[in-house]
Amino acid sequence: MTINRDIVITEVALRDGSHAIGHQYTIEQVTAVAKALDEANVPYIEVAHGDGLGGSSQQYGVSLTDEMELIEAAVSVCKKAKIAVLLLPGIGTMKELRQAASIGAKMARIATHVTEADVAPQHINLAKELGMETVGFLMMSHMVPTKKLVEQAKLMEKYGADTVYVVDSAGAFLPHEVRERIEALRQALDVNIGFHGHNNLSLAMANSLAAIEAGATKIDGSVRCLGAGAGNTQTEVLVAVLERLGLKSGIDLYKMMDLAETIVAPILKTPQEITRNSLVLGYAGVYSSFLLHSQRAAERFNVDSRDILIELGKRKVIGGQEDMILDVAAQIAENPISVKK
Amino acid sequence: MTINRDIVITEVALRDGSHAIGHQYTIEQVTAVAKALDEANVPYIEVAHGDGLGGSSQQYGVSLTDEMELIEAAVSVCKKAKIAVLLLPGIGTMKELRQAASIGAKMARIATHVTEADVAPQHINLAKELGMETVGFLMMSHMVPTKKLVEQAKLMEKYGADTVYVVDSAGAFLPHEVRERIEALRQALDVNIGFHGHNNLSLAMANSLAAIEAGATKIDGSVRCLGAGAGNTQTEVLVAVLERLGLKSGIDLYKMMDLAETIVAPILKTPQEITRNSLVLGYAGVYSSFLLHSQRAAERFNVDSRDILIELGKRKVIGGQEDMILDVAAQIAENPISVKK
């Protein structure tokens, strides 16, 4: 029986949530969560290292359990749900994508920085050859104007992505900014449009609704907010809100509430909330990896780490440019014009 | 020096947050929080039992510390911030209002069920005689159509309220519903309009922004979400979001972040999050006091407590009608047409 869905939700707790628990997922946890999500009629469940396939490393955090074993475990218990994997070209490779497909992953989400869609075509092509659904996943979308975002999204479409996602990696978007971007994409693209939000500014739900109003039909959520930073749009709450709006997710609300409470909540050592660190990352709109570097630089130069992060956000510094952090700290120390009001 | 504020925030953690900690505030906690809020330039700080002045009782929960002592403590450390009190006629009396004014409270928020503004005039009059700013606080505003809400708000204005608040006690509103109501009030009233949200549907921030867009200038927040249910609009996050929108709250963002992290977070035994119970209350749009009754009735009649709560919400059952809960449970047991999809 096909389930009628106005909005198609991808549950990301078993990938994005990996960040929140230091990549310590066990087979038992992934099996229990995936089985319950499948029974609640969740259509897509993403499973991978937090930084995508191949992310397990000293740099990004070593997984307790090999992600391929986690994917196999999830595949083995899902009767209807499809398993999705995330792949950041440069971190993951064709080899991991082939392996994931061979053990049953059905959707490949190819993630690039919002200005670097051009690294994605080979991986999208391979995913299509492997018979997978494909997603172009434009990370840190808030860092570019709408026009640039549309240009990059059109590249993803041209490469063959079935869906293009606007990804608010830092939880920095305001609802009107999301609305403007999704509307522009809706005009420019023929493929599906998705939105992936983070809750650093307590706006993940608001931004997801703005995206839906503007034409997005694919939304990511993490049950119990089990995602990086302040977590994502809380899936079981999203299901409830969509029902209130008369939109069908096809997901069983009571089962989602129950699995959130009894299976997922115990996985978290402390409940997800908006802390000072996650708030400042969302407010500054920068990579979470900048946090620790900025705190160290702040100590060295006797400045406030938040001033550094906000300045990095203004300068649109991206991952790989961490050397800028010391420069910015030194400049603030020399010329302490506070960036705050 | 007068601080320029586009949006005037009232911090409610020391009143609404009392629910979240079982009314166990100590003098030391209230002193520390109020002092830090004052130093961060928060203009109004509400202090009282969670159910308002006089709420300490077996029925509503016995306060560890007499609320008048807490109010005195807060008044004594605030150089600029004004202390507000909440009063629900029927729970609190004129006597407590006089006492609160005599020890330095400067704002009286007179709270009634959204259909019962007519119990407020005496208390508003007294507050004005005592030289206090006055607020008409319309609780459970989601339970009535906009027209009825406007009628009741106009009563509050007629009685002399300086501000009328739309209060989303159950965290049940969706943003478009808030927008419609605030717009209607903006047309109908000359006084200030306020919004008090709860986060049960992860929409407290979205609803606060919708209220502001529609003309509200007074917004309640609770630092670190320290409020009843899933907590309120998170104050330090609201301050950050307003800055991003170019709106002045007059509050120091860094100081708010710091006090949230170092002074308020340690007060919470477990961080605030959206649990199954708070979600179902927001989804059903019912009083939190119905939860335990419904769970007991559900056990007795072998039905799902959520079906009871949702049916109570549909029937717009209000506080004092708890006897309806058993009736509804019995009816669901006899005729188990699930209300869920």
From TrEMBL, chains A, B:
The lineage of its organism: Bacteria, Bacillati, Bacillota, Bacilli, Bacillales. This is 4-hydroxy-2-oxovalerate aldolase. Belongs to the 4-hydroxy-2-oxovalerate aldolase family. Its EC number is 4.1.3.39. Mn(2+) binds at D16, H196, H198. The active site is at H19 (proton acceptor). GO terms for molecular function: 2-isopropylmalate synthase activity; 4-hydroxy-2-oxovalerate aldolase activity; manganese ion binding. Pfam families: DmpG_comm, HMGL-like. The record marks R15 as: Transition state stabilizer. Gene3D superfamilies: 1.10.8.60, Aldolase class I.
